[in-house]
Amino acid sequence: MWRVSRMTMAAILAASTIIPGCATSSAPLSAPGFAEERTGSLGRQYRLGIGDKLKITVFGEPDLSGDFEIDSVGRIAMPLIGNVLAEGKTIAEFTNDAKRKFSNGYLKSPRLSIEVLNYRPIFVHGEVRSGGQFTFKNGLRIRDAIAIAGGYSYRADQSYVLIARDSQPAVRLPLASNIPVLPGDNIRVPERFF
Known about the structure:
Oligomer: single chain
Order of helices and strands: HEEEEHEEEHEEE
Number of strands: 10
Strand content: 15-25%
Shape: elongated
Helix content: 10-25%
């Protein structure tokens, strides 16, 4: 009869709970910026980009509030404080930067509210019926984006797509993945080879 020490038994039990978890993990794919998600929400980690339109409210200061678009160099020109870098920042990071600039000799205790009015568009091209630029909608998945572009052409390879995100090179992703489409994504459906 085998005798197993308590330490060995604890190690076996720990390994048996870890290994099954690895098989069903929803860990990020190998490509940076692509992770499977269970929800369609952009969440708190959404990064602002060129073309996003924001509604910025400075409480008690209607002349400083308004709708602003991130310009071609990634900045928002705001009254009184000038240009504030927005591209690549979360809404919380951008809010903190704007507050810091306002409190630097302009407002005593600035309070800001920022919301995204319109996200930058997505682009779908390649072997789809009517590719082009399309309005982003929250919760959009790869198959949804292809449907918006009129569906596949008869030459389309329907097993994967190429997606370029955040100025990164295109990444090959299987269509079966649960990757959400984000604003600014450039999706290309490849041609199949016979």
